[in-house]
Amino acid sequence: MSPVFDDWRSVPATWKGGAVALGNFDGVHRGHQTLLAQTVAEASALGAPVVALTFEPHPRRFFVPDTGPFRLTLPPAKLRLLAQYGVQAVLAQRFDAAFAALSAETFIADVLLAGLGARHVVCGYDFTFGTRRSGNVERLRAEGKTRGFGVTVLEPVTREGEIYSSTRIREALRAGWVTEAVGLLGHSWEIEGTVELGDQRGRTIGFPTANVALGEHLRPRFGVYAARALVDGTWRNGVTNLGRRPTFGKLQENFEVHLFDFTGDLYGQTLRVALVDFIRPEMKFAGLDALKAQIAADGEAAKRVFAQQA
């Protein structure tokens, strides 16, 4: 895993003087991947490190604290993906009131230059910075010419005229369009969380499940999905249910994963669960027999999905 720093004042000299990718990178989707590839190319030309500057928590969470869960990638997944696409070090800048109050001038002088020693920066066409978004790409270009650092601004990255964006991916997941979301991401979409102790009802009806904490992850459409989970380094096929379990009168959101032909104990482990395809929406059943029959049918439907992909 790449080294990670949470404040521009703590970046060691080893990681200064690099090409720096700027952005939130939620999802690390195909548009982000194009930006990262450009950053890697600039770093290679300079013989310099590849660094990403991102923000934690996501600025939206800071400015609108009561907004619902919306993250495509929480920090562990984002860091893993950034490294996968060539980033060697990450400044996951702590986004607090003090940082939000920095002027555009201070962001450039203190964060980019003093903190990171940036020799080249790469960002998207809509990147803004500084208090009240007072800085934009035109300001960045002008300061680059004055202060002697390179600036590359990427125009929108599109597919058939549609811009790759985190917003579009969130919309697809909320609609249950997993394959569409995966196509926009360029990789699987995962929920990663700790396996918590549930009510263990699943094992009493022959379908033991792992209850995975949802945390700040975006909530995709409630229902049943074909899914894979990473267990001891191996991706195992299974089926998941996301919802409130109306058959049992539950109100709390629950994310349950049933893995085929698996009997191990996962409590307390961190589980990565990749959604593969949507099977059906959440339903309420008249009783346990109807529920058991549907769970069995869901498992067969998921197995057909995996067979089609084999």
For the record, what is the CATH homologous superfamily label of the largest domain?
HUPs
Shape: elongated
**Main sheet makeup:** 6 strands, parallel
Order of helices and strands: EEHEHHEHHEHEEEHHEHEEEEEH
Instruction: Estimate the mean pLDDT confidence.
Output: 93
> Would you state the CATH class of the largest domain?
Alpha Beta
**Could you list the spans in which at least 5 consecutive residues all have pLDDT below 50?**
none
Quaternary assembly = single chain
Number of strands: 14
Q: Which percent range fits the helix content?
A: 25-40%
The percent range for strand residues is 25-35%
CATH architecture of the largest domain: 3-Layer(aba) Sandwich
- The CATH topology of the largest domain: Rossmann fold
Number of structurally distinct domains: 2
Count of separate DSSP helical elements: 10
Rg over CA atoms, rounded to whole Å, is 22 Å
Kindly, what is the distance between the CA atoms of the first and last residues, rounded to a whole number of angstroms? 30 Å
Structural class call reads alpha/beta
Largest sheet: spatial strand order: 1-4-3-2-5-6
